[in-house]
Inverse folding.
């Protein structure tokens, strides 16, 4: 993957707006509260980027670890309400820590806590976008985390890599810089494979990367699997993703200067329109449609709407307007979109030409199951 040199590191040198994500594996002293000195070092680097005129948005984990330390808890609780309480206590500490360090550079920071709902409801998504844009225009560094105290397990980002990518989409950032406890993405998890080799550069959508990226460590949540997924999401708005060690001295400045450090994952396609990116970022999917080969081909090659005639099977219980995923006959994901019919009605339309919809259902909402404006090919 390093042999293909069509990309180049210089893309980072031209970045005007970056999202920096700092993971749990780095932020805490082995799970015992925040590593204040290390955080101070990253803030120094972010301030240096800011001085160069680069807009910086930070996504930072660490609330639960800091909350546990403040509450004197030695092991991570498993009960949700305890985790939520720890997050509430720890988030103040996290915010305070960043504020103090940014203030040393004369910079203001702002705490922004988001939930999946904030980004899946289109109105709230647009609100979040304008608030964040305003903060950035004011020269403030937004410090974003998931609002762990109010989210339920069913609908959460869980890992902050995904949140970082969605923020990169939201703000059309040029780059997502993920700092973690490894030098980058290796061809196998270096924890169990001492001979694993660093992937220096690649295409975010390269399917060969899937087998390499494993799960997370004790403190982190998603591991490389969620970082790879984040790179793919970020690529949808044209952002390049760097995954690098937060322990490398001046890692952020060196990345921006184009130094060969960590892993760089490039977008392989033109950025999607904002609405399609929003669709792609939706995590909650209510049903699955299995498409025949013809439907898969027109969706992929022509960006067509999905008609009932091309759908073979359906799973799940959903309402009109819910998000469903479309797969091919081997189960591989092809597209996602908002469906025009509830599952009970959609079921009756499978394999049928659109002209028969009114006759079968007694009404016709639309000739297609998913209109192409509401469909994103994955
Ligand atoms: N192919 C891989 N290359 C590098 N790290 C990997 C790989 N697969 C799994 N990992 C693991 O991912 C971990 C980093 O992810 P995680 O623990 O979630 O950290 P963070 O809190 O920074 O998101 C590493 O400690 C590493 O053990
Ligand atoms: N939102 C959580 C962090 C989630 C998390 O650990 O994510 P990650 O840093 O991607 O492994 C917190 O602040 O504790």
């Amino acid at each position: 993957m390093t042999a293909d040199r069509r990309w180049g590191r210089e893309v980072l040198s031209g970045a005007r707006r970056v999202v920096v994500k700092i993971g749990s594996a780095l932020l805490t002293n082995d799970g015992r509260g925040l590593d204040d000195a290390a955080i101070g070092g990253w803030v120094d680097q972010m301030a240096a980027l800011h001085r160069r005129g680069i807009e910086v948005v930070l996504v930072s984990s660490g609330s639960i670890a800091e909350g546990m330390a403040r509450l004197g808890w030695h092991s991570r609780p498993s009960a949700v309400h305890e985790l939520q309480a720890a997050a509430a206590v720890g988030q103040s500490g996290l915010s305070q820590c960043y504020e103090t360090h940014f203030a040393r550079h004369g910079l203001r920071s702002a705490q922004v806590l988001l939930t999946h709902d904030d980004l899946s409801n289109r109105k709230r998504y647009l609100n979040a976008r304008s608030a964040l844009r305003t903060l950035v225009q004011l020269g403030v560094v937004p410090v974003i985390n998931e609002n762990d105290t109010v989210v339920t397990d069913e609908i959460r980002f869980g890992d902050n890599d995904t949140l970082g990518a969605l923020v990169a989409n939201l703000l059309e950032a040029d780059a997502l810089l993920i700092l973690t406890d490894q030098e980058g993405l290796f061809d196998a998890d270096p924890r169990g494979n001492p001979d694993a080799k660093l992937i220096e550069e690649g295409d975010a959508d390269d399917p060969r990367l899937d087998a390499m990226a494993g799960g997370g460590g004790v403190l982190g949540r998603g591991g490389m699997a969620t970082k790879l997924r984040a790179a793919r999401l970020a690529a949808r708005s044209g952002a390049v993703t760097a995954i690098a060690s937060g322990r490398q001295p001046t890692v952020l400045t060196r990345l921006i200067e184009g130094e060969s450090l960590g892993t760089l994952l490039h977008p392989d396609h033109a950025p999607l329109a904002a609405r399609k990116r929003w669709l792609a970022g939706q995590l909650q999917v209510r049903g699955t449609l299995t498409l025949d080969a013809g439907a898969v081909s027109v969706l992929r090659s022509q960006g067509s709407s999905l008609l009932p005639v091309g759908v073979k099977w359906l799973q799940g219980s959903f309402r009109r307007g819910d998000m469903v995923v479309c797969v091919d006959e081997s189960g591989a994901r092809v597209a996602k979109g908002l469906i025009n019919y509830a599952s009970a009605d959609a079921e009756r339309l499978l394999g049928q030409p659109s002209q028969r919809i009114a006759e079968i259902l007694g009404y016709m909402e639309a000739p297609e199951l998913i209109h192409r404006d509401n469909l994103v090919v994955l």
In short: DSSP finds 14 helices and 13 strands in the chain. Residues 10-277 form a domain with the Carbamate kinase fold (CATH 3.40.1160.10). The mean pLDDT is 92.
